[in-house]
């Protein structure tokens, strides 16, 4: 099954989250009531007045004179987008981002780790709401384009599942413009042919449709019949693999923090091996109770994909940071950067024990296999036990 996850009014929702006084108000990001700028995003309250993205700010002000206009913070939205992507990465390495606020996910093969597609979709929604205080709409279907349609049907905070046996009954009554590639010009051509719904396209003679619309007609006919062979194309250009945890209350227990770092390292290292890559830069992210954030990195002499090595370095970074910043912690994160393919030859240092390296690698392989077969909470290091059982 394929998931399409789309954040709800992303930019505007971030502004309402960060500025509670804006909750419930029509918020417009970008543009101004008097300037020439255009609207970058509008909250759902603003959309009720007909305001939408790319609309001139003056027009938006005319439609809703009491709308609150805020300056966009693209760097901040990108940071939040990375946090959303990090949550996706906990459940599958096969992620195809479409923009900062939406992506396709292929969860085939991760069921034993995280449950079926519906369970994963619910878990992702819950994590986004609990950790980021934002909402997302989720569409789940066996076809990519159907998942995207489904995510848009029940916004905001929607959750729509379409099973294989339900494809035709789901698609048939929808307006034809729901099909990918049908814009305003194409819509007029289809209407001239009497095609108003997806059912109309499905029942239309395929050869006749191709004769009138060319290859594009064949493409539409296939979509209307639920035929779409396109899979999720993962973003292989990702520069790092990361995992982080935000605590519900501030933490200063050294043993617990150590366990959290071990847990984060286990998760990132497993995803690293699953993506068939190795890392040579390990970074610890540390956010204090006053929300001031610090990062500390270490570059390894040779790339690795071994959980034990990642834990060793990350724990050392944690201890160094705690010596300098002993205050309570709100968030911890581990990221693995400087990624290379795991098929790349690695030169061991003079201090590496080849037999020990081989033993560590076998342990990781066994843990990965058992986690895939029995679930992620089956086999793990003792150091992360306390944290895992608090979740």
| Spatial strand order of the main sheet | 5-6-1-7-8
The H-and-E topology, N to C, reads as EHEEHHEHEEHHEHEHHHHHEHEEHEEHH
Number of helices: 16
The largest sheet, given as strand count, sense and whether it forms a barrel, is: 5 strands, mixed
Q: Over all CA atoms, what is the radius of gyration?
A: 24 Å
Ranges where pLDDT stays below 50 over 5 or more residues in a row are none
CATH architecture of one domain: 2-Layer Sandwich
Q: Per DSSP, what share of the residues sits in E-state strands of 2 or more residues? A: 15-25%
| Gross geometry | globular
Would you tell me the overall average pLDDT? 87
CATH homology group of one domain: DNA polymerase, Y-family, little finger domain
As a percent range, the share of helical residues equals 40-55%
* Separation of the first and last Cα atoms: 27 Å
CATH-defined topology of one domain: Dna Ligase, domain 1
Subcellular location: Cytoplasm
Subunit structure: Monomer.
GO molecular function: damaged DNA binding; DNA-directed DNA polymerase activity; magnesium ion binding
Main location: cytoplasm
Give a verbal description of the structure.
The active site is at 102. There is one protein chain. The protein has helices spanning 10-18, 44-47, 57-63, 74-89, 111-114, 117-132, 144-153, 167-171, 184-192, 198-203, 206-213, 215-224, 254-274, 307-324, 354-374, 385-388; strands at 2-7, 27-29, 41-42, 68-70, 95-99, 102-106, 136-141, 159-161, 241-251, 277-288, 293-304, 329-337, 340-341. It has 391 residues and is an alpha+beta fold. It has a five-stranded mixed beta sheet with strand order 5-6-1-7-8. Among the domains are: 10-74, MutS, DNA mismatch repair protein, domain I (3-Layer(aba) Sandwich); 172-224, Orthogonal Bundle (DNA polymerase, domain 1), CATH 1.10.150; 241-388, 2-Layer Sandwich (Dna Ligase, domain 1), CATH 3.30.1490. Strand 10 (277-288) and strand 11 (293-304) form a beta hairpin. It has 16 helices and 13 strands.
């Amino acid at each position: 099954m394929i998931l399409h996850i789309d954040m709800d009014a992303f930019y505007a929702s971030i502004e309402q989250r960060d500025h509670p006084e804006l909750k419930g108000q029509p918020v417009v990001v970008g543009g101004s009531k008097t300037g020439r700028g255009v609207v970058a995003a509008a909250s759902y309250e603003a959309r009720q007045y007909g305001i939408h993205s790319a609309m001139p700010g003056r027009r938006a002000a005319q439609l809703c004179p009491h709308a609150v206009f805020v300056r966009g913070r693209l760097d901040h939205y990108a940071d939040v987008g990375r946090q959303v992507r990090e949550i996706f990465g906990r459940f599958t390495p096969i992620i195809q981002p479409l923009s900062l606020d939406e992506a396709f996910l292929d969860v085939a093969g991760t069921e034993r780790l995280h449950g079926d597609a519906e369970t994963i979709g619910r878990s992702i929604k819950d994590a986004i709401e609990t950790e980021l205080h934002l909402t997302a709409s989720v569409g789940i279907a066996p076809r990519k384009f159907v998942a995207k349609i489904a995510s848009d049907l029940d916004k905001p905070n929607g959750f729509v599942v379409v099973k294989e046996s339900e494809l035709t009954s789901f698609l048939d009554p929808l307006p034809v413009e729901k099909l990918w590639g049908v814009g305003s010009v194409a819509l007029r051509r289809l209407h001239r042919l009497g095609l108003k719904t997806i059912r109309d396209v499905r029942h239309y003679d395929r050869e006749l449709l191709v004769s009138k619309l060319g290859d594009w007609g064949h493409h539409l006919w296939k979509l209307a019949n639920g035929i779409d062979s396109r899979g999720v194309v993962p973003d292989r250009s990702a520069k790092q693999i990361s995992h982080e945890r935000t605590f519900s209350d501030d933490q200063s227990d050294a043993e617990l923090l150590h366990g959290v770092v071990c847990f984060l390292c286990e998760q990132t290292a497993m995803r690293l091996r699953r993506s068939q890559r190795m890392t040579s830069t390990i970074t610890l992210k540390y956010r204090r109770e006053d929300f001031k954030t610090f990062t500390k990195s270490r570059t390894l002499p040779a790339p690795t994909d071994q959980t034990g090595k990642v834990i060793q370095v990350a724990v050392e970074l944690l201890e160094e940071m705690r010596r300098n910043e002993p205050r309570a912690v709100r968030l911890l994160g581990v990221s693995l950067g400087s990624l290379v393919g795991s098929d790349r030859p690695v030169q061991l240092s003079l201090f590496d024990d080849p037999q020990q390296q081989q033993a560590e690698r076998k342990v990781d392989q066994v843990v990965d296999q058992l986690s895939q077969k029995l679930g992620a909470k089956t086999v793990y290091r003792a150091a992360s036990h306390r944290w895992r059982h608090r979740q």
